[in-house]
From TrEMBL:
Residues 28-68 form the F-box domain. It comes from the Eukaryota. Residues 1-24 are annotated as: Disordered. Residues 1-14 have a biased composition (Low complexity). This is F-box domain-containing protein.
Length: 422
């Protein structure tokens, strides 16, 4: 892309092209130039600011950024990895491009998150990602125990950031914050903030449009104690939380209320330790777990669960991906990955002798990226010493990153480029 952009710029500035009546007609029509630039990928558009003062003026307008955000698709193009090797050590960030050939790893500059000059370098970390925007917070390293973090919305493509207001003056911090941003619906974003104290739940919503933090829910004797509010997922104009047993709760942004969420059709022998991942991708919601036996999506959707038929030292297991499509309220099993097939395709998964009999048990599922007919659904997971991906379409494994320590703590954030204003 960089090479193509450089060649485009040279054509635009060459004497022959400058004297071309057709080129002059195009470049002299601001409306036509705008329509062309609206269809150029975000990073390329930012480079085109250097072509001329007129193009700089067009691209710098908020209205241009808004239209560009609404017009362009926001498919996941990369992963941002946060890797911590030791407790209380500042993590390193890595960028993984999800290109056609597999995984292209690049080390992000150490000052990637030093966007706020009022903070000390290295004190900001990523908490969450949503359609090209990042929810970031200041870290508590070398800070007092009751340190109140500062929260930001950061656009890594444009390097713009906005600071979120602190919690209300009630002596409580936010237990969780969930960024909600759907550029196909609106250029504005919202942040759903929860406080839970002595069985009382409060939910606040911050809107980038009004710049206000509004109390929407205040519920005493809250009963959903099994929910993990740090594991919220934005989907379908709501924020969803789910327990390891599949019990869910949703906060509906348009109605500003809570309602229960449908439970996946889990088998009777499902246990908390079977749960692995809950997230959104491609407009779909996903609940992923590990079941004993060689499972099949068609059988599971009929309620038929295959027993563990293994007779050797390796446990028979399957990774099961439950999916709920947008506009639906029903779960179904979309993908299954059988462990023995995984061992044959990627023998390194059993390198750790202590986990050879049950390698999926130690795997941490970092991200699931669903795809349409032209894209490849990917499951990104951490096994001892490595981060790998599995493509359900090609049935292939790829190594993303070799970790220097097996005990490293890794988080993955889906990323796409956007010109969205913050």
């Amino acid at each position: 892309m960089v090479g193509s952009m450089a060649s485009s710029s040279s054509l635009l500035t060459s004497p022959e092209q400058k004297n071309s009546p057709s080129i002059n007609a195009v470049l002299g029509n601001d409306d036509l130039v705008t329509e062309i630039l609206l269809r150029v990928p975000p990073k390329a558009v930012l480079r085109f600011k250097l072509v001329s003062k007129k193009w700089l003026s067009i691209i710098s307008k908020t209205s241009f950024a808004t239209r560009h955000t609404l017009l362009n698709p926001h498919t996941v193009s990369a992963l941002l990895l946060r890797v911590t090797l030791f407790f209380k050590e500042r993590p390193t960030n890595k960028y993984v491009s999800l290109d056609v050939d597999g995984r292209s790893l690049a080390y992000i500059p150490h000052d990637f998150l030093d966007f706020d000059p009022t903070n000390n370098p290295g004190c900001i970390h990523i908490s969450q990602s949503c359609t090209g925007l990042l929810l970031c917070s200041t870290c508590s390293w070398d800070r007092p125990e009751r340190f109140q973090p500062i929260n930001y919305i950061f656009n890594p493509t444009t390097r713009q950031f906005g600071m979120l207001p602190p919690p209300p003056d009630n002596g409580l911090y936010f237990d969780s914050m969930q960024l909600v941003f759907d550029p196909s619906e609106s250029s504005c974003y919202r942040v759903v903030c929860t406080q839970f104290f002595t069985s009382e739940l409060k939910i606040y919503v911050y809107s980038s449009e009004t710049k206000d933090l509004k109390l929407c829910v205040s519920q005493e004797n809250f009963e959903f104690l099994s929910l993990n509010f740090t594991n919220g997922v934005s989907w379908n104009d709501a924020v969803h939380w789910i327990s390891r047993m599949g019990d869910g709760l949703s906060f509906l942004l348009d109605k500003e209320c809570l309602e229960t969420f449908p439970r996946p059709p889990l088998p009777e022998n499902w246990q908390e330790q079977n749960f692995r991942y809950f997230g959104e991708s491609g407009g779909h919601l996903h609940f992923i777990g590990v079941l004993e036996g060689n499972q099949n999506p068609d059988d599971l959707n009929k309620g038929i669960v295959s027993p563990d038929m293994s007779h050797d030292h390796i446990t028979d297991q399957s990774i099961v991906v439950y999916t709920m499509e947008r506009g639906s309220s029903k779960w179904f099993v979309k993908y299954c990955l059988h462990m023995k097939a995984s061992v044959m395709a990627y023998p390194e998964i059993t390198e750790d002798e202590g986990l050879a009999a049950s390698p999926f048990s130690a795997a941490r599922f970092l991200s699931f990226i669903d795809g349409d007919k032209d894209e490849r659904p990917l499951l990104v997971m951490q096994i001892p010493g490595e981060i790998i991906s599995y493509c359900f379409k090609d049935k292939t494994f790829k190594k993303i990153l070799r970790l220097p320590f097996k005990q490293a703590i890794c988080h993955a954030f889906n990323h796409c480029e956007t010109l969205s204003c913050v």
